Each structure stands twice: as C-alpha cells, then as structure tokens.
Amino acid sequence: MRNGILLVLVGIVAFVLYLGAFIVNPTQQALVLTFGRIDKVVQEPGLNFKWPFVQNVVFLDKRILDLNMPTVEQNLANKKRVVVDAFARYRIANPVLFFQRVQTINAANRRLSTFLEAALRNELGRTSFEVLVRDDRAGVMDNIRRSVTTNAAELGIEVVDVKIRRADLPDANSQGIYARMQSERQQEATQIRAEGEEQARRIRSRADRDAAVLVAEARRDSEIARGEGDAQRNRIFAEAYNKDADFFGFYRSMQAYEKGLQQGDTSLVLSPDSAFFRYFNDPMGRQSAPATGSSAAPAAQ
Hints:
Blueprint: H1 2-20, E1 21-24, E2 28-34, E3 37-42, E4 46-49, E5 55-61, E6 65-68, E7 72-75, E8 81-92, H2 95-101, H3 105-124, H4 129-135, H5 137-152, E9 157-168, H6 171-243, H7 245-260, E10 266-269, H8 278-281, E11 297-300
Antiparallel strand pairs: 1-4, 2-3, 2-5, 6-8, 7-8, 8-9, 10-11
C-alpha cells in the first residue's frame, strides 16, 4: 500500500515537473507571466521551470529581424520626385517593454513601418537628388536611422540599421530625362560632325594648295631640265657637226628618211632630183642641178 502511494506521488511530481519545464533556445528569450503579469525574464538558453497552471511563458526572438518597407514616392528638396525602396534591421532590446507595448512581431513591424516611412519622408524632403544618389547617401540613411531609433526605443526595440536599396526617378521623369539626354547627345554629335567637316575642308584645301605648288614646281623643274637637255643636245649636235659635217648631214638625212617615209594618212609628192633625195642619187650627197619645170608640192589624200 505504501509503495503504491509513493509511486503515485512520484508520478504526480514528474507530471508537475513536465508541465513546468520549458527550454529557451539560443535564438530566443522568454517572459514568464503569472496570471498575465510579467514575473521573470529569461535571456540565457537552457532548461527552466515555471509553476504549472499558474504561470505561462511567452517566447520572443533574440535575432536581428528584417523590416521591408513598401516603395515610397516623395518630392525632394529640389522639387524632383523620387521613388525610394528602403528596409530596416532591428532587435528586441527590452523584452518587457516590447511585450507591454506591442506583444507580437507583426504588430511591431506595423508600428516600425509607420516610424520608418515618416522619418524617410521627412529626411527626403530636406535632401536633394544629388546628395541622395551621389554625395552623402550614407549620411541620409544615418539621419533616418537616428530618427527611427528615437521612436522605436519606446517599443523596446533597437534599430540596428536602415538602408536604401534603390532611389530612382519615376518612369515618366526617367523618360523625359532620357529624351533630354538623347537630344543633348544628338546636338553634341551634330556639332562635332560640323567641326569635323570644317576641319576636313581645311585639310583638303591645304592639300590641294600643296599639290598645286608641288605640280607647279615639278613643271618648272621639268621645263628647266628639258631646256638644259635641249641645250646639251644642241651642243652635242654642234660639236658633231663641227667634227664631220658630211657625216652629220648624212645622219640627219637618214633620220629624216625614217620619219618622213613612214606610212600614214599624208602623202608627199617630191621630185626624184630634189635635195631631200640627194643621198639616193649620190652616196656622197652631192646634189645635181634641178630639172626645168620640176616642182614639189605636198598633197593630202
């Protein structure tokens, strides 16, 4: 009988321990509630106990959580409209305050989205497009993070980081800017093309002038060379004539026969005893007295 009662007691104790035991994972932190009132905060991982039926446990995430913002379209300080896609990362720094104010992650995300959108619009309204996309984008994001951190601290949340994924102009503005850029590039191309054509005309004009000068100089030099050649030829002929006048006359007559007796469209009618044929009549080229009535006249056929 005693052993049976002992076994019952052991069973009851084991059941109570089973109902009261809970495990906190390394990625979690826990709140132990006694009739809905926060009694204890457990942030270290491991096995823990609570009073069954009296206390219950709420688990909260210890990891860094992501908050994705919907796309925001906002006017900047220089009146340009921009489309911004941003996100934030946060963690639950004060689980007691977090549970008292929002209780769940979904509710916290909704509240943080409101804070982030308000801070984003406020900061973009004071920022120019150049600062946002080029000059000090990191500074803009840091200002937004500080603004969100102030409001999020009231929820027991620590904002780790705020990032802007994308900051672009709306499609209509982008098309207008693209058209303006295209027009500017076309004007620039037209100007460059006109300057190139003007430079090409100058180069062609300079080349034509240089070519004319070179041709004129070449003709001048050729005429000088031709004159010098003719003078040299005449001097050689004169020297040859002075050395042997008969041979020179014979040589010149042979050249005249070669050129004059070639086949062509023009016919020559000459007397056989004319001076042109004196070497035909006498090998020494002595000319006989011309016959009476002889004549020589060219006739064209």
